[in-house]
Amino acid sequence: MSRTTAFLGLGAMGWPMAAQLARHARETGGRALVWNRTPAKAQAHAREFGSEAAELSGVADADVIFSCLPTSAEVDEVLGALEGQLRPGTVWVDCTSGHPEAAPRQAARLEARGVAFLDAPVSGGPMGAERASLTVMVGGDAAALGRVRADLAFAGKIVYVGESGAGFAVKAINNTLMAVNMWAAGEGLAVLARRGVDLQAALDVINASSGRSYPTEALIPQRVLTRAFPVTFELGLLAKDAGIAADMVQDARASAPLLLQGAALYRAAARLIGSDADYSAALKLVEQMNGQEIR
Ligand code: NDP
Fold first, then answer.
1. Does the first or last residue of the chain, that is N or C, have fewer Cβ atoms within 10 Å of its Cβ?
2. The pLDDT value given to residue 187
3. Residue range 15-29: average pLDDT?
4. pLDDT band at residue 218, thresholds of 50, 70 and 90?
5. How far apart are CA 124 and CA 23, in angstroms?
6. Which of the listed residues 35, 55, 69 should we mutate to test ligand 1's pocket, taking the one with most ligand atoms within 8 A of CB?
């Protein structure tokens, strides 16, 4: 079946995700439209991957509209601009790490036009998108997911997690768990460094032992010890995710002091280190707090 997809937002994630849609379109005889606020990026994407750069109004005819923007606020803006032109039967798949409270509101707004809205944030980073191995966590109408499952050409794993907003909720908690793990690892390594312990050796032990985590295995050795801090995911976006988790803690009247601390620490790190730094650079604040580089 020949399909037209559209991808809105060609940032660090959207660029390689939309490239997978273009590949899929080539393989299936479909079309892959791309739109970006800065149009030159969409034109460059079309040249590089064979997608079609479109005006925003031009994406309304797509069968599936994907978005991957910084927050739910930008999705609201774009949705507002397109809303009047959307066709019944379209499915909007929002891959933004959005706010769980935004999703049911956005879904209700689009349902009035016969358009289904799925919150479908992703995990795996730009590299996961390039390898088409992203994990997608989907909230909303399960039947609508069934209609677009085959269009998620950037996915390695798709998990339906529940009603509208559940995808955004799982994503915020996932990222905050990673953030808390990274911060704790940073504190532990700063303490060890102050004692004169070699951190390569310490990580060699930790990564073969029960203290290991994604940050000790795949972030700190490559990004912090090397002092490279390459920007693939902005610290400000991680602080946003931890803030969403903190909102969820309050909304649920839950008792989750580590998650709330995590949100406060990452807000401070984004402010003091820079929201456009790489997320691993949050550990520069741990370094300042300890007068000790983690290297
Ligand atoms: P980037 O900052 O790299 O890209 C942001 C994109 O949003 C750009 O295309 C930008 O357009 C566009 N944009 C910003 N403001 C607006 C606006 N007001 N109206 C329309 N478009 C706008 O972000 P990422 O790709 O890193 O992140 C996108 C989402 O994915 C976030 O929610 C993030 O938390 C999540 N995410 C990121 C991961 C990562 O590793 N980077 C991993 C998993 C999820 P322009 O080019 O014009 O600036």
1. N
2. 98
3. 98
4. very high
5. 19
6. 69
